[in-house]
Write a structure and sequence with these properties.
Order of helices and strands of chain A: HHHHHHHH
Radius of gyration of chain B: 17 Å
Mean pLDDT of chain A: 92
Number of domains of chain B: 1
Oligomer: heterodimer
Order of helices and strands of chain B: HHHHHHH
Number of strands of chain A: 0
Distance between the termini of chain A: 48 Å
Mean pLDDT of chain B: 93
Largest interface: A-B, 85 and 79 residues
Number of strands of chain B: 0
Number of helices of chain B: 7
Strand content of chain B: under 5%
Chain lengths: 149, 121
């Protein structure tokens, strides 16, 4: 698993930058906050001008942010912001999108099946596995609880 | 005002992530996994919805929002389909975001060329 280790280190380096807390924390706050603010803008536009309910508008907001993140990753801009943003660019859904798109593009040289197709999920895979599993456990509890409530 | 709260709450959630990176040296993949699982647990307990009501995108855009959506989707699927919902709820809830990431990721991989930019750094 030499490649995935390299990939981890790259992503770690990309999101790490300077490690002084008084620099990294405000940067993460400002850039993360700005991305959420952009999300709030789309959320409002979709609710007001498209007449969508909150949950639907939130889903379209996610799709929009994922699209923008993919585009920025394609141009190599997301990495530049991420150098400063740290967790501010990692934790929002744009960071998840970047974690999918970046290896998809990077490993194109290894082919579209085992390169792009497989490496897309280097980070997104674990997120989905443990997210779905956590939800599954909750589902079992919720289902059983339903018999007694 | 809603933009201020979206900024502050979203920024604070990211700051927690930054603290974890700097103090524990958790890898980005582990941070993402932790945030999604934490969001699922908070969503399951019903503690995340008040934050969404308060901060809007400040709570839905970070991956904890993604997690809380998994919990919510799970509840709705079980209410609708019973036992089957345990198996369909999770994927149904995250379908939009994950599909968008896959499709746009594939499109970017097809269109753009990467000249080993990150590898050189």
């Amino acid at each position: 698993m030499d490649i995935s280790k390299k990939e981890y280190e790259q992503t770690a380096k990309k999101h790490a930058g300077s490690s002084k807390l008084y620099i990294t924390l405000p940067k993460a706050f400002l850039i993360g906050g700005a991305i959420c603010c952009l999300g709030e803008l789309f959320l409002n536009i979709y609710q007001r001008y498209a007449g969508l309910d909150f949950d639907t508008a939130a889903a379209y907001t996610s799709i929009t942010l994922v699209f923008l993140s993919a585009l920025f990753t394609g141009f190599g801009w997301y990495e530049k912001i991420a150098k400063h943003g740290g967790a501010g660019t990692l934790v929002p859904i744009t960071g998840f999108a970047n974690a999918v798109v970046s290896p998809a593009l990077e490993f194109k040289t290894e082919g579209y099946v085992l390169g792009t197709g497989a490496k897309m999920f280097v980070i997104a895979g674990p997120v989905i596995v443990y997210g779905i599993s956590a939800a599954f456990i909750y589902g079992i509890i919720y289902y059983i609880y339903g018999f007694f409530a | 005002m809603e933009y201020v709260w979206a900024f502050v709450v979203g920024g604070l959630i990211c700051t927690v992530g930054q603290l974890l990176i700097d103090l524990t040296k958790l890898t980005p993949a582990r941070i993402l996994v932790s945030f999604v699982v934490a969001g699922t647990v908070l969503g399951a307990l019903g503690w995340y919805q008040p934050l969404i009501d308060f901060a809007g995108a400040g709570a839905t855009v970070p991956l904890t929002g993604f997690g809380s959506m998994l919990a919510k989707g799970m509840r709705e699927a079980i209410d609708k389909d019973g036992l089957l919902g345990i198996f369909t709820g999770g994927f149904t809830a995250c379908a939009a975001g994950v599909t968008a990431a896959i499709i746009f990721g594939l499109a970017v991989a097809l269109i753009f060329k990467r000249t080993d930019r990150t590898l050189q750094e």
